[in-house]
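Kindly review this record before class:
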Amino acid sequence: MNPQQETEHLAALIRDLRKHKKVTLSELAARINRSVGFLSQVERGVSRPTVADLTAIGEALDTPAAYFYHLGQTRAPTCVTRPGERRTVYFADGVTDVLVSPSMSAGFTMLESFLEPGASSGERPIHDRDEQGGFILEGELTIWFAAGEEPVTLGPNDAFQVAANNRIRYANLSAQRTRVMWVFT
């Protein structure tokens, strides 16, 4: 799928999940501290959510963020993925995530993230129920691990780990593209 088709697919997943959970647009907007107008644009595929927005939507709907990476097609063998078979989510603010894991029902999930220069997870910290870690493949990633603390900038071959339920924010403050392999449990 191209980026617009992926955005429309993500919009449908969010809208359908919200309706399935019997949550109004206004209720969900209030839960994630965003406007109804913004959420309506996301659900229509007009705007892309940030990483923080999508994580907050999953949390507000009591659904792991990994749900939004679900592939509608089956592969053979099911324990392998190849580049053309992977689900890609294009976020606002220049972040693209590719689901590398063949299954989201295993003990961990792997994502490959691409951050364009100036890209970020959003202004609000991400609160994720999952433990996560990352390995910087290319470029630089700046992470704010806690409010008020100085950020940490990581480069190629650096790694990090974040305990479940911690709040983080991240960005590519460099002039080159950043590539990160994430693992979520």
User: Anything to note?
Assistant: Residues 3-20 form the longest helix (18 residues). The chain has a mean pLDDT of 88. Strands lie at 88-90, 95-99, 109-115, 126-127, 132-138, 141-144, 152-154, 159-162, 167-171, 178-184.
